[in-house]
Design a protein that fits this description.
four-stranded antiparallel sheet; mainly beta
């Protein structure tokens, strides 16, 4: 074989190696993973809370079994046993509450609705005793509020409903875990419930969308957004989203921007979106994001950021999808399809898997599903 032929063969081999590396590496990034059914829950739930504890277990608390049936029970998902264990009962029935893991390992559960009214009370779950205890009261009853852990370990609790699903609040307050007290902070520019709140990389908090007043079918849905600055204790308006959205999802992206997913306008079921928007904290503006594969809403806790920078969008529709910000597109997660996806919860586990719990499907009268799913990358 002459020198030219040898060089040609060498280049061909190098090219083949390059193609092989490219082909084998891309699926690792784009592979959407798959779902499997895991052990049944103690009771079917939607609008519950799900919190990863420091011991690796997941606390599932409250919610509704079906319309008219509010829950005070709680359970733990044990990742080693791969089943749910009883975790006692909260001191009140709560659906649409907030749940926040504190630095001391306890979980603050605040507000929600007990079937009669919104609640101002809060309680603490202690994993060491597997019990709930009172944690004082907020300045106002709040259902479907949002809670965000600040950089200093305190918890910002924002907005919500003061009366059932009505009378939206603009007020906010801060829970101090050292003193176990709630301290009022500045109010938002707009009252909101069923909105989203995300802590940015610089410590500020983005608040976007939500319902600001009225009753179906004449409720007011917000396109507005604002940012809370812990250093000043004030909310500052930023550019509005392109569309009014509530019952939305959100996730922090690797570059510090925020993905806002789906939601609906005032038409609810008839106004669901497949569209997304991306907030840039550097400019304070939203830009159009890619379309999702499905129209989705009622997904407040059904979206989360994965360790590799992608986003799992599991709530709001039967087919979960994975959004890849590098490719700006989504891929469908392998079947089977979910049968509970409205007001379900997603929890990232230490090993990279995601636990999807509860929710209900297209028939609300059937109530919540009594099982959970596991997404594996």
């Amino acid at each position: 074989m002459d020198r030219r032929a040898k060089l040609g063969l060498a280049f061909l081999l190098l090219f083949c190696v390059f193609v092989l590396l490219a082909v084998t590496s891309i699926p690792q990034r784009t592979r959407p993973g798959n779902l499997s059914l895991v052990a049944g829950t103690e009771v079917g739930r939607f609008a519950h809370t799900a919190t990863l504890l420091k011991n690796g277990r997941v606390l599932i608390a409250g919610g509704m079994e079906r319309n008219g049936v509010w829950l005070d029970s709680a359970e733990l998902y044990d990742t080693e046993l791969e089943r749910f264990l009883p975790a006692g009962h909260m001191l009140a029935r709560r659906a649409g509450a907030t749940a926040t893991l504190l630095a001391n390992g306890k979980v603050l559960i605040a507000g929600g609705n007990d079937g009669e009214s919104s609640l101002a009370s809060a309680e603490l779950y202690d994993p060491a005793t597997n019990r709930f205890s009172l944690a004082g009261k907020m300045s106002s009853p709040r259902g479907h509020a949002e809670a965000v852990t600040l950089s200093n370990g305190k918890v910002l609790i924002i907005g919500g409903n003061a009366e059932g699903d009505f009378q939206q609040l603009a007020t906010a307050e801060i829970y101090d875990p050292v003193t176990s007290t709630f301290i009022p902070t500045a109010s938002m520019q707009h009252p909101r419930s069923s909105f989203t709140a995300v802590r940015l990389n610089d410590g500020r908090v983005l608040v976007a969308g939500g319902m600001s007043g009225g009753r179906y079918p004449n409720q007011r849905i917000e396109a507005s957004a604002e940012v809370y600055d812990p250093s000043t204790g004030h909310f500052t308006p930023v550019e509005s989203m392109a569309l009014p959205r509530y019952k939305i999802g959100s996730a922090l992206l690797p570059d510090g921007k925020v993905l806002i997913t789906g939601g609906s306008d005032a038409r609810d079921w008839h106004g669901m979106y497949a569209s997304t928007e991306i907030f840039d904290p550097q400019t304070g503006r939203f830009s159009r994001g890619p379309e999702m594969r499905e129209r989705r809403f009622k997904m407040t806790h059904g979206v989360l950021s994965l360790p590799d920078g992608r986003v799992l969008i599991a709530g709001g529709a039967s087919e979960p999808e994975i959004y890849d910000p590098a490719l700006r597109r989504s891929s469908a997660v392998s079947e089977p399809a979910l049968d509970g996806f409205f007001y379900s919860t997603t929890t990232l586990l230490p090993d990279g898997r995601v636990l999807i719990v509860g929710g209900y499907g297209m028939n609300p009268q059937a109530g919540a599903v009594k099982h959970a799913w596991m997404w594996k990358p």
